[in-house]
Amino acid sequence: MKRLLVALVFSACATTGSNAAPPPKPAECPTTEPSTTDDAQLLWTARVEKVCVLGAAPQQAADLQKLVQNREGQQLAPEWLSEELRVFVATGFVREVKAIASPVGQHGAVLTFAVKQYPPVGEVKFVAGGKVNVGPSREAAMKTAWASPIALARVKEDLVDTLHAQGFQLATVETKTTDVAGKTNVEFVIDEGPQDTVKSIEFDGNKRIKEAELKKALRSALNTPWDVNTNVYDEQAIQFVYLEQGMVNASVKASTVRDASTGAVAVRFTIVEGDVFPFGTMKISGEKLGSEKELLAGFDSKPGKTFSRSAVRRDVEKLEARGAYTATPQVTVDPKKKRVDINFVVTPK
User: Fold this and answer.
1) N or C terminus of the chain with fewer C-beta within 10 Å?
2) What domains, with CATH codes, occur in the chain?
């Protein structure tokens, strides 16, 4: 479990006798973790004279130092200190961190972040049935320098996504770790399960657009691995086909039937096309790039023409080609007049 420990401790500081205090020594970073005492005073008013990182490997220490360097010169405050501790843990290689404030001068402090790192990753193995390609996940795992739960969980999630993309929807992954000679060896044990394959693709409700045109937009293909995420992509791809032909209210819903014994998946897209909407009123607002009438005359988007998503995109490019500007189309679908009104808002980049 990650530990966040704040040990902001100041020893009492006083001078005796009538002699003047010696000049203060410049703030320096400790070489060992500063000690604390039971009678120390907990103070939040000291000025941070120096920030130090102790206990991390050189490169990681340098990276952590950059995160907190800007705290020098600030007054100690529990709010920002707690946030910095969370940032340390979020790096993924810090197992434990505590902050220790040591007095310097009359009102200053050296703030030391004492950290303990996760061990470096040693050997990485993948144990699978041989039906999957774990190449991308293997490369990601080999680049994982520290055996932190966050980093290993990320590799595991990527591996599961890779398995799903190859049709293994029921695949599971178990992560095993073994500490050897100061390093952590990692083993990912994969149970692929059955592979799902697309065996049929059907459309229901497509009256204006032919099936062949819709299939061209799909990522799914016959006799290829089926991935549930592909359904989401294909739904959007079909909607874009309908948008290109003015059917702005078209809806698409993918459904599947899976044969548990063979992994064969039948995919069906249920479509509600809706009406065909033309372009309505067209206007340009914001930064003036010239005569609005002349600019609109050169547009592909024209009142009365069937709405087209690509036509709007081309007109945006025409406006932005006139200088350092950004053109944002504000689209209003008028259900009563069954048209699409567009206002191209031009702003400086």
Assistant:
1) N
2) 3-14+25-117 (3.10.20.310), 121-191 (3.10.20.310), 197-272 (3.10.20.310), 279-348 (3.10.20.310)
